Amino acid sequence: MSRKKVEKIMFFSKTLDFLEHYLPDQSLKSRNTIETYRDALTVFRRYITDTMNLSLRTFGFEDCTHDFLLSYIEFLHKNGNSETTCNNRLAAIRAYLWYAADCDISLQSVALTASRVPFLKVPKLTREVIPDDALKALLSAPPDTKIGRRDRLILILLYDSAVRVSELLSMNVSSVNLEADIPYLRIYGKGDKERIVAITDKTADHLKNYLKVYHEVIDPDAPLIYTVIKGHKDRMSVGNVERIIKKYAAQIRSKYPNFPERCYPHMFRRTRATNLYQDGTELELVSRILGHSSTETTRIYAVPSVDMMRKVMESGDLESYEKPLWPDDEAEMARICGLR
């Protein structure tokens, strides 16, 4: 008796439901997270069609083998993608396959095979920060013109509030409160979590001047930072912010040989967090300012200064900066163990 041929299931047949329904409605992922998954699956699709010259119609789940994924990760790495980027894109494929397997039990072997593809080892790099003297010069580099004031405000907000560039560009005019006793920004971060970040009086003054020039008529729902294209105001892109930083970094680099070779938005956040920690701010408070759900995430910024290490060495208490195996906080320890 002949067996009936099992119909081949197209690999991307479930991506629409995964991205449009499962992630936002059931997994409750944020818009930015969903777009990260979409980008990762799009890059994989292009590898299949443009590099491997395969058709989406004929590429099935069973074609996504262990060796195929290994070749894909090797391709990404050889084409300039960092280990972290390669791992994130592999993780997105794994998540999609487990979703597909939950929908169709016959696909569980494919998801299991993908889960056995190893992540690349990520080297521990020294995360660069902007030196104090160079930081002052960089924040002062924009000229005293309309565009220069906007550029200076962007640099100042990235540092003073330690916001992610995506958080800065998503802010509206209503996100700024300059009338409170302590001026603050209302930030919506990863996972659509809201936090309040206080700003200095000097930063508040820069904001007041900026609002007078760029928001003569106050519209609470207008984007705080915007560009005008063909007479239409729209939110500034991340690429535009990166170009602004690169422009002013190039202007001062020759005078500051210790300035990082490459300067980008997240470096302002890292510099601020490191400076707060080295100035004696408790790690828990730094974590709240950054919007981290756990202080473990914030520890990457907890780099002791030379002066801090010197004082510890003089006191003989060298164990002070060793990371404990388990945190002292009982609630945090329970969270790490997956408990409440």
Overview of the molecule:
With 340 residues, this protein is mainly α. The chain has helices at residues 15-26, 31-51, 66-78, 83-103, 108-115, 132-140, 146-160, 165-170, 201-214, 238-252, 265-278, 283-290, 295-298, 306-315, 330-336, and strands at residues 176-177, 184-188, 194-198, 226-229, 232-235. It folds into 3 domains: 11-115, DNA polymerase, domain 1 (Orthogonal Bundle), CATH 1.10.150; 132-296, Intergrase catalytic core (hpI Integrase, Chain A, Orthogonal Bundle); 304-340, no CATH class. It is built from 15 helices and 5 strands. The strands form 2 sheets. It has a 3-stranded antiparallel sheet. A two-stranded antiparallel sheet has the order 4-5. β4 (226-229) and β5 (232-235) form a beta hairpin. The longest helix has 21 residues, at 31-51. Mean pLDDT is 87; it is low at 1-6.
Ranges with pLDDT <50 over ≥5 residues? 1-6
Rg computed from alpha carbons, rounded to a whole number of angstroms: 24 Å
CATH top level of the largest domain is: Mainly Alpha
- Classified in CATH, the superfamily of the largest domain is Intergrase catalytic core
Biggest sheet overview: 3 strands, antiparallel
In the CATH hierarchy, what is the architecture of the largest domain at level 2?
Answer: Orthogonal Bundle
- Percent helix, as a range, is 40-55%
Shape: globular
Strand content: 5-15%
- Mean pLDDT over the full residue set: 87
Q: How many structurally independent domains?
A: 3
CATH fold-level label of the largest domain: hpI Integrase, Chain A
- Topology, number of strands: 5
The topology string of helices and strands comes to HHHHHHHHEEEHEEHHHHHH
SS-based class: mainly alpha
- Can you count the helices? 15
End-to-end separation in angstroms reads 56 Å
> Order of strands in the sheet with the most strands?
1-2-3
Keywords: DNA recombination, DNA-binding
Domain Tyr recombinase: 124-314
GO molecular function, one term: DNA binding
Domain Core-binding (CB): 13-101
